[in-house]
Amino acid sequence: MNPTTRWTLGILAAVVIAMLLFFWIRSDPKPAPTKGAVATQPATPKAEPAAPKADGPVTVMIFFDYNQSAVRPGEAAKLDELAARAKSQASDRLEAVGHADRIGGPDYNLGLSKRRAEAVRTYLAGKGVEAKRVRAESKGEAEAVTGDACKNMGPESRENRKLIECLQRDRRVEVKLAAR
Question: What's the pTM?
């Protein structure tokens, strides 16, 4: 092969590689990182209150952030609907049972689950439900729903984000609207 052909093939290969890289990089733009506060969970659209039903109890699950007892904005719509239903049925009572994940000591988790149940009671009272109709109870980490799904995920600490995400379903308050 003569030198001119070799140079032509080399330049042609370089141009083809450059074009492929250009289109590959251009087709997968990365979003620019944002600065500022951590993004919050978007609020769910306000649900219309459910029509009162006389058949059986209603249970609503309210989930909480790690180590927090404040009702998340995304969970408020569930409580709004439940409050509307509870106000229309004066003879019913509500039971708010708080739970925590297994990270932390049993005594701390029992107190945290109690604060979560009380936060739900306070929220419902703010929506017009008589606070004395809401019984707040705490279970701590005793009734986990994740079971073995989150085993062997590393150390049980607040630095283990993977484990914290896996245990999300354990950080909850179960609110039950039941007939007396």
Answer: 0.66
